[in-house]
Amino acid sequence: DGTDAQSLMTLCEELARAAGDHVRARTGDHGGVAATKSSVNDVVTAVDTEVETLLRERIAAARPDDGVLGEEDGVVAGTSGLTWVVDPIDGTVNFLYGIPSYAVSVAVVAGGADPLRWTVLAGCVHAVAGGTTWTAGLGRGAWRDGEPLTVRPAVPLGQALVGTGFGYTVAQRTREAAVVARMLPQVRDIRRIGSAAIDLCLVADGRLDAYYETGLNPWDMAAGSLVVTEAGGTMTGLGGAPASPAMTVAAAPALAAELVAALELVIA
Ligand code: IPD
Q1: What distance in Å separates the CA atoms of residue 102 and residue 23, rounded to the nearest whole number?
Q2: In the chain, what is the greatest distance between 2 CA atoms, to the nearest angstrom?
Q3: Where are the alpha helices (DSSP H) in the chain?
Q4: Residue 42: Cβ within 10 Å count
Q5: Which of 2, 118, 227, 263 is 20 to 30 Å from the Cα of 67, by its Cα?
Q6: Residue 220 Cβ < 6 Å to ligand 1
């Protein structure tokens, strides 16, 4: 009935690629900032909205009984128990400035739109500018452009290249700046790539050793989180909590444990 991991994975990838084609076509003429959200830095372009509409139309055509949660238009409940969680452009600020790290993120989850309760069944992160596509299916594995992925073996925290990101409000950034100031001396270096979905896939891919961020949104993390865990990585929060919008840590298991311990000391 199309709900097996393979069919859902295929549909995630078809949707993400179709959305990516639209973003690519509009790259040179996105029209700038169309609106702002939580702060003046939290921007939306016309393309974000167009792509979310495209995704919602295609999901409604392919799977009319499923729910959809999207960055721009919120949640529409379904009746099937499955919910599509979509970010039309993760890394909108990069897209706005022509920096090539932005992606379409499409996932399908069971158990509703709350990351603390959902099970991600399949996901695809399609990096539009570079054309790289990461996919994962629950219990099936994770791939980059068809190549199976395994996280790089854990290195000590002091030798780890760590990705992170920041929210858009002054209150978020004030908290995050204090954390990053205390983490930076403890690691090899820190990267702020500007797309949480890509950060997670880079951990799965062994190009970042680890990643942490506070204040993510469900659509930033849904697809990428499955790519991490299906590549053998750990997704977690602090204090034994699962990964959530409050705190997401991703790394090979032993490094995730070390990073969690360091963050707990910094945040306590
Ligand atoms: C943002 C990006 C960024 C992260 C922010 C997200 P958006 O998503 O993923 O890397 O640091 O927390 O909100 O707004 O570009 O979809």
Answers
A1: 10
A2: 52
A3: 5-25, 46-62, 92-97, 170-183, 196-204, 218-230, 253-267
A4: 14
A5: 227
A6: yes
Distance 172 CA to ligand 1 centre (A): 13
ipTM: 0.96
Ligand 1 geometric centre to CA of 91 (Å): 5
Could you give all domains of the chain from N- to C-terminal order, each with its CATH number?
5-148 (3.30.540.10), 157-267 (3.40.190.80)
Encode pLDDT of 90-115 as tens digits. Answer: 999 999 999 999 999 999 999 999 99
Q: Using CA atoms, how far apart are residues 261 and 263, in angstroms rounded to an integer?
A: 6
Among 52, 69, 90, the mutation site with the greatest number of ligand 1 atoms within 8 A of its Cβ is 90
The HSE-up count of residue 261 (CA atoms within 13 Å, CB side) is 9
Task: Give phi and psi for 48, each to the nearest 5.
Answer: -55, -45
Residue type for position 110: A
